[in-house]
Design a protein that fits this description.
By secondary structure, this protein is an all-alpha fold. Helices cover 79% and strands 0% of the residues. The chain crosses the membrane at residues 42-64.
């Protein structure tokens, strides 16, 4: 039970953490696709690069997201 209102920084914590977790989860899913779906090598490399970009975006989302 809270007696006082949350500060703006405290209100943004779930959004920051949830967004970062979603990006990490998406990265993990993209990495698993080449093992489930047969595809040519360039497509596998492209998906791996996308997964790395999503993984790098997660900490950036957490740090830069300021609501």
């Amino acid at each position: 039970m809270r007696l006082a209102r949350l500060t703006p920084r405290q209100r943004s914590r779930p959004v920051r953490a949830g967004g970062g977790a979603a990006l990490i989860g998406a990265s993990q899913l993209v990495q698993q696709v080449p093992f489930v779906v047969p595809m040519p090598y360039p497509a596998k490399v492209t998906l791996f690069v996308v997964a790395l970009l999503l993984l790098a975006a997660a900490p950036a989302w957490y740090v830069l997201r300021r609501d």
